[in-house]
Amino acid sequence: MGKKDPRVDAYIAKSADFAKPILSHLRKLVHQACPDVVETMKWSAPHFDYKGMMCGIAAFKEHCAFGFWKANLVLGENYERDSAGHFGRLTSLDDLPADKTIIAYVKKAARLNDEGVKVAREPKAPRKASPMPADLAGALKKHPTARKTFENFSPSHRREYIEWITEAKTDATRHKRLATTLEWLEEGKARNWKYMPK
User: Fold this and answer.
1) In this structure, what is the dihedral angle of CA atoms 58, 60, 66, 71, given to the nearest 10 degrees?
2) For 128, what's the count of Cα atoms within 13 Å in the CB-facing half-sphere?
3) pLDDT tens digits, one per residue of 31-74
4) How many domains does the chain have?
5) Domain match, 108 and 147 both
6) pLDDT tens for residues 120-150?
7) How far apart are CA 74 and CA 173, in angstroms?
């Protein structure tokens, strides 16, 4: 049996007047097409889960959005690929596809989740190593403990220090960051050590 979430009720109630009928109608169709759907809030917007993420709705100042987690498998190539959702900017019920079309899409999304179908995501290209700035390289030669810490860090931790130093807008800021970098490396700290779990 499906499950409604009172947070979705509150979200719809707080939405602009034009958005309320759109969101309510989409919600009704999702439940009609997939009676076992479970509502939740993700990324501050209503989502519908059925054996995994399935679809979501959102309201903005001037439009609503409706989209599927596995859009390329559910909709094929017939969908928009922008922040307005997979059906473009929805400003009234007239902007929605026919009810039977939406229901068919939701049923297809549920079937894909029933079958455990995963979306093939394109692997991200590995980031290139950031070139070592000459001033950092020179400073590390003079501070062996800091150099050893730096060399033992993962490429992402090294890149964080390099980018922090090279993004300084003034020489004074760059020199200060370089000094702080050496101090933290001497203590074995990553660039964002303050935010790391203890």
Assistant:
1) -100
2) 3
3) 999 999 999 998 888 999 999 889 989 999 888 888 888 877 77
4) 2
5) no
6) 776 777 777 778 899 999 999 999 999 999 9
7) 51
